[in-house]
Please model this.
Amino acid sequence: MDRRKFIAASLATSALAAAPAVEAQSPATRPRQLYQLRRYTLQTGPQVAMTEKYISEALIPALDNKAGPIGAFRLDVGPETPTFYVLIPILAPAMAGALELELNQNETYVKAAEHFWNAPASSPAFLRMDSSLLVAFEGWPRITPPAKGKRIFQLRTYESPSYRDHILKVQMFHSGEFEIFTNAGFQPVFFGDTLIGQRMPSLTYMLSFADSADLDAKWAVFRNDPAWKKLSADPRFAFEAIVSNITNLVLSPLAASQI
Model:
């Protein structure tokens, strides 16, 4: 198959994930989730408390039990702090677009969100909010909440120089990378392919750790795993740099987070 036919065939598959599913993670009875990943960029000061109150007391209660656990996180290590991230599983793409309209028909939500939404221009509740729509990988079709207890989270985004290379990176996860993660002791939360968002083509995934020392230790195991060395040298994926940029963030959960 030449490159143009390969790309066309791959793009025709659901959410660009052409590789076979990992049986242990994607039984037929568990369809792939969709995720809205929100980012609230804030200014140090009253905005932080106001936005956390909105997320905790208005947004999460209004969305609860819609499609799965909702994650809410504070950015601890990254280029823009303070920032909050909210991970919302959704049932269908149309729901992402209509989410605010649906919420604003909920009187309890409207009342709880009043101070956030009615903040004056002279003292806004946040600087900017943007969001991405992702679809879960076939091999990791649903959010997997970590064990309870004190946790930190790593949010990683891989950008690729072309859609072909992006597809290959998704296939790389389905060709053994999931197993390498789990064998190294990682606790993955989700893997998502970006359908709508910035800096496409890209994919994003989240990992959970007990603390920063645990994070460093598990990545050391991953990098030294013979299976990873073999996979990363596989000519299917190593013929060029199929990932052109990696964004690596460290987050901590807000008190109201369900993840």
Observations:
- The CA atoms of residues 35 and 248 lie 19 Å apart.
